[in-house]
Amino acid sequence: MTTTLGGGSGSKWWAGGAAVLVSTVLLASLGGCGGECDPSACRIACLGISPPTRGVCGDDGVCRCEGVEPPDASVPEARDADARDEAGSFDEAGSFDEATGPDDALPPPVCEDPPDGPYGLPCLDDPDCAPDLQCLPEVVDVFRGEEYVSWAGGSCSSWNWEGAACEPGSPGECATGGICLLMGADGSGRRVYGCFDACDPLDDAGRPQSSNCDCRDGYECSIVHGVCLPGCSHDRECCEVWRDGVGGAGDGLRQAEEVTLLGPEVCTNYCDRSTWRCVNRGCPGGACAVGDPCDHDTDCPAAASCRIFVWSGFGSPRGVCTLDACDVAGRSCPARSYCLDLRTSEAPDFACVARCVLGVSPGLSGCATGLACHVMLTEDGTPFGGCLLPCDTSGMRCGPGMVCDRGTSGCRPE
Question: In the chain, how many domains are there?
Answer without folding.
Answer: 3
